[in-house]
Amino acid sequence: MSLLIDDECINCDVCEPECPNGAISQGEDIYIIDPDLCTECVGHYDLPQCIEVCPVDCIDKDPAKVEEQDSLYQKYLKLTA
After folding, report:
1. What is each CA distance from 31 to 19, 28, 80, in whole angstroms?
2. How far, in Å, CA of 20 to CA of 7, rounded?
3. What is the rounded distance in angstroms from the CA atom of residue 81 to the CA atom of residue 77?
4. pLDDT by residue (tens digit) across 5-25?
């Protein structure tokens, strides 16, 4: 499952540098997460780093992009190959 930044985002810029896959970028109004690059930090960390550092708790799992742990790990392997 990819993560999603909601409209509570204050554009503080702390999440973007924490993403090991480069999945977070500045969108038109708020930061966005590319679901093709997001692995929820599987393979890198135990917990999604963007969620850990977000001061307003505006990042959550995207219900439209459900992925199993194994699928996230396979994506990690593909991205780091």
Report:
1. 12, 8, 23
2. 23
3. 6
4. 999 999 999 999 999 999 999
